[in-house]
Specification:
Radius of gyration of chain A: 24 Å
Number of helices of chain B: 18
Radius of gyration of chain B: 28 Å
Oligomer: heterodimer
CATH superfamily of the largest domain in chain A: Periplasmic binding protein-like II
Number of domains of chain B: 2
CATH superfamily of the largest domain in chain B: MetI-like
Strand content of chain B: under 5%
Strand content of chain A: 5-15%
Helix content of chain A: 40-55%
CATH topology of the largest domain in chain B: MetI-like fold
CATH class of the largest domain in chain B: Mainly Alpha
Number of strands of chain A: 13
CATH topology of the largest domain in chain A: D-Maltodextrin-Binding Protein, domain 2
Largest interface: A-B, 57 and 47 residues
CATH class of the largest domain in chain A: Alpha Beta
Distance between the termini of chain B: 36 Å
Number of helices of chain A: 18
Helix content of chain B: 55-70%
Structural class of chain B: mainly alpha
Mean pLDDT of chain A: 88
Largest sheet of chain A: 6 strands, mixed
CATH architecture of the largest domain in chain A: 3-Layer(aba) Sandwich
Chain lengths: 451, 415
């Protein structure tokens, strides 16, 4: 009896030790959408698409001449669907440049941190995703390669790409990475809510005032929230730019958060919140505005192409529509999120690496990726290849002439956070628009001035 | 009794010199491995470039370490000299150090060497891919610039948050741990099972617990549902709280309930936010069991005869608890408070997983700020500044624990 008790206790202790030593990877995945607004900046699109089309024998030859018997490593982030897209890309690349071997090693979590550590230790991959954080870390000291010479060899120019996308990856006029995909925001709405309240559905000529009027009517019914928006710099940017000004001046030296245009846009949003035509996701007990739409808690919101996937997988029986971003008093403009692919400056096979980057971001490969519904092409002339009509409507915002990427230099994160926090304080009732944005202006200017 | 004539002091030249030289060389080698140089592929992939960089930026570091290494070498040589004559002592000493050597080498290279590197870097601007540049005390000054410039108050706000955390969590978790230990010390059926169950939160990975609590704390989650059903018993409605997203401070809510208002420029009067307190509750849940075990162990040491004598004298259970149990537990209480302070001032896991600095920076902590600055999460990499913050935090923790040990352990025997 005592023996069995000892054995059982030992087993219990052993299992507790095993539990304690379990790697964090065994942890349950975070509650879905805990930080949905951050997601777009890192992973612009998240569609687990229909199977990627089998790579057809690519038309064309290798973009540039490569080293013989080159072996390169390629790293990126992303879930299974993104990994599948890039595995297919590698297959297509192999058909075009058969002498190059590409080893794909995706890094699903903490990509930027891992890459900085690898680069510091000299073991970074040859080709990897580059976002604004990695541009800040690597470009000033040229840890990533300028690609202009290789682009010239491949007859690829900067004008081939959507202009706004190139801003992040440019330093001193040189190109340090090529954009691999992008996302933007569009007006997402539920037709049945509009029918129930008895107002006309939105059109692509709508302005923010129209949105406000409709939202007010919807919220008055008491059943649905009007327009869903969080205290989020990304959702606020289209308001600001369509009122006439961005967060920072074009020379990236002065913060413009206290300009009349931005203050007017902020006041508009604040007024909408006060009259309850604008609600936050948390106010309707959703974790993000996409979920609020899926659960039919609000009538409208601004979300991106990832809604296609979310609605298809989680809310398949909810009918929804999308339109390009509404316009403001000065113009119609949107915000773009983008990431690129760059080449390690210490790569042993720079030509092969550059060839891969140029191919992956080139027209042939981008067309194949668009067909899977995973992302938009980075070439403006391929916008009509988008399959889903809602996706196509949302993407229109990215092609508008005044659309910007919210990139303000190395301290972009701090500046954008200052805007989000100002909106938070306004929604809380802690400060009025002028005080909140005065504080945000000071914080943003400090961030711009610091090295 | 007369003193033994002292043996003539012999100088064993060869062993002493070998000891000194080998220790000096090993320590210097470790210093070179930890030398503060530029990072990046060009330096890491070529020994010649690495030594060039060492020559360019790390010589003062190596010079200081060399002085320290020489002193340690001398001390070691003296010690070897003393025991060399006596064969038994000699064997014991050498065996002792042979067993210690692996651990010492690893600790010196990967812990102490790195700490010295960080201390040196804290006086420089260092972003890994360029050479560190000397800035003296500028990093330390920058940390406290928040007193004059409110846009630079991140570190001060982090300290403020973590001090509230410590002040609230340490007493509560110590008190709960004592109570639970006393409870589980009483003779009852299934005592062992309860001890195992109660200890489970400390064994489970903090990452897992944090993620579960994030889910529980959702606006539509179980905690709000629980409060709703409790409030419902009294016929009232519970307004659901977004626990991890609510930045309203404790004192601020009390003041506002009384009709006042704390302006946003006096943020330091607002107290810990609801989100921050939610994280405190979660941490107390996780750490109480660890300390409960320590108290349980200490309780076994208390002589039961004391309680018998006290009950014969007519003492009530409460008097026995406060006059016998607690004073006998004082050394362990001191230990638990010190460990608790050190742990709470360094809280990071929960912030990283649950709030990432939290609603309006109300759950920002020094370690999280260090992580952000060191890895360039929101801006360029600032390794030097992050190192300075780390050392400031270390000094603060040291001062706190020093005061606590003095205060609590007055008049008790030290273990």
């Amino acid at each position: 009896m005592k023996r069995t008790l000892t054995v059982v206790s030992l087993i219990l202790v052993l299992s507790m030790i095993l539990a304690a030593c379990a790697t964090p990877a065994a942890a349950p995945t975070a509650a879905p959408g805990v930080e949905p607004t951050k997601a777009p900046a890192v992973e612009p699109t998240k569609a687990p698409a229909a199977e990627p089309t089998k790579p057809e024998p690519a038309a064309g030859t290798c973009p540039i001449e490569v080293e013989p018997n080159a072996t390169i490593t390629f790293s990126g982030w992303g879930d299974e669907s993104e990994q599948a897209v890039y595995k297919a890309t590698i297959e297509r690349f192999k058909a075009v440049c058969p002498t190059v071997t590409v080893n794909y090693s995706p890094i699903p979590a903490d990509f930027q941190t891992k890459l900085k550590a690898q680069m510091a230790g000299g073991t970074a991959p040859d080709v990897f995703y580059v976002d604004d954080q990695l541009m800040t870390a690597f470009a000033p000291t040229e840890q990533i390669m300028a690609l202009d010479d290789f682009m010239a060899q491949a007859k690829v120019t900067r004008e081939d790409f959507i202009p706004a996308l190139m801003t992040i990856f440019t330093q001193n006029g040189k190109t340090y990475a090529l954009p691999k995909d992008w996302g933007t925001l569009g007006l997402v709405y539920l037709p049945e809510v509009f029918k129930e309240v008895g107002i006309a559905e939105p059109t692509d000529k709508w302005t923010w005032e129209d949105v406000r009027t409709a939202a007010k009517k919807i919220s008055e019914g008491g059943k649905y929230g009007g327009f869903c928006m969080g205290a989020d710099w990304a959702r606020f940017s289209p308001f600001a730019t369509s009122y006439g000004n961005a967060f920072v001046s074009k020379d990236l030296k002065t913060a413009t958060l206290d300009t009349p245009e931005v203050l007017a846009a902020a006041q508009f949003v604040a007024d909408m919140f006060k009259e309850k035509s604008l609600v936050r996701a948390a106010d309707v007990s959703a974790s993000w505005c996409g979920e609020a739409i899926g659960k039919k808690l609000v009538g409208m919101t601004t979300e991106g192409g990832w809604m296609v996937n979310t609605m298809k997988t989680t809310f398949a029986d909810v009918e929804w529509k999308a339109l390009p971003i509404p316009s403001g008093p000065k113009n119609q403009s949107d915000i773009i999120f983008t990431n690129g692919i760059g080449v390690n400056a210490s790569s042993k096979f720079p030509k092969a690496s550059a060839a891969f980057v140029i191919y992956a971001t080139g027209r042939d490969n981008q067309a194949e990726i668009v067909k899977t519904g995973f992302a938009y092409s980075t070439h403006p002339d391929q916008a009509d290849l988008i399959v889903d009509p809602n996706d196509k409507a949302i993407a229109q915002g990215g092609l508008l002439p005044d659309t910007i990427v919210a990139y303000w230099g190395p301290n972009t994160g701090k500046i954008n956070d200052a805007v989000s926090q100002a909106l938070d304080r306004i929604f809380l009732g802690d400060q009025d628009v002028a005080t909140a944005f005065k504080q945000a202006q000071a914080e943003a200017q400090t961030a711009l001035d610091s090295k | 009794m007369h003193a033994e004539p002292s043996k003539p002091k012999q100088f064993h030249a060869l062993p002493s010199i070998i000891t000194f030289v080998s220790i000096f060389v090993v320590l210097l080698l470790i210093a070179v491995l930890n030398a503060p140089t530029m990072g990046g592929p060009k330096v890491m992939n070529s020994i010649t470039v690495f030594f060039q960089e060492v020559k360019a930026t790390a010589l003062p570091f190596l010079a200081v370490i060399a002085v320290g290494a020489a002193v340690i070498g001398l001390v070691a040589a003296r010690m070897i000299n003393k025991v060399w004559g006596n064969t038994r002592l000699r064997r014991e000493t050498l065996t002792g150090f042979a067993f210690l050597a692996p651990y010492l080498l690893v600790t010196l290279t990967f812990t102490i060497g790195v700490v010295l590197f960080a201390f040196y870097i804290s006086f420089h601007n260092y972003d890994i891919f360029t050479r560190p540049t000397w800035v003296g005390l500028a990093n330390y000054a920058e940390a406290f610039k928040g007193f004059s410039d409110s846009t630079k108050r991140d570190f001060l706000q982090a300290l403020y948050n973590v001090l509230w955390y410590s002040i609230l969590v340490v007493p509560i978790q110590t008190f709960l741990a004592i109570q639970m230990a006393v409870l589980l010390n009483k003779p009852m059926k299934g005592k062992q099972i309860f001890r195992t169950i109660f200890y489970a939160p400390s064994v489970t990975s903090s990452v897992v617990i944090t993620l579960i609590f994030v889910w529980l704390y959702l606006k539509g989650g179980y905690i709000n549902a629980l409060f709703n059903s409790i409030w419902g018993l009294f016929g009232a409605k519970w307004t659901t709280v977004n626990w991890l997203g609510d930045p309203r401070g404790l004192i601020q809510m009390i003041v506002e309930a009384l009709g006042g208002k704390i302006p946003s420029t006096q943020w330091f009067f607002r107290g810990p936010s609801i989100a921050w307190m939610a994280i405190m509750v979660q941490n107390i849940f996780t750490t109480v069991p660890t300390f409960m075990i320590m108290f349980l162990a200490a309780l076994q040491d208390i002589n039961p005869a004391l309680y018998e004598a006290a009950s014969m004298e007519g003492a009530s259970p409460r008097e026995m608890h406060s006059k016998i149990t607690l004073p006998m537990l004082k050394p362990i209480i001191s230990l638990v408070v010190v460990l608790g302070t050190i742990g709470t001032l360094q809280v990071f896991d929960q912030v990283y997983l649950a709030t990432k600095g939290g609603p309006l920076k109300t759950s920002l902590t020094p370690v999280f700020l260090i992580y952000q600055e060191a890895l360039g999460i929101n801006g360029p990499i600032h390794m030097g500044y992050a190192s300075a913050l780390a050392f400031i935090l270390a000094v603060i923790i040291f001062i706190f624990t020093f005061i606590q040990r003095r205060g609590i352990e007055k008049g008790t025997e030290r273990y």
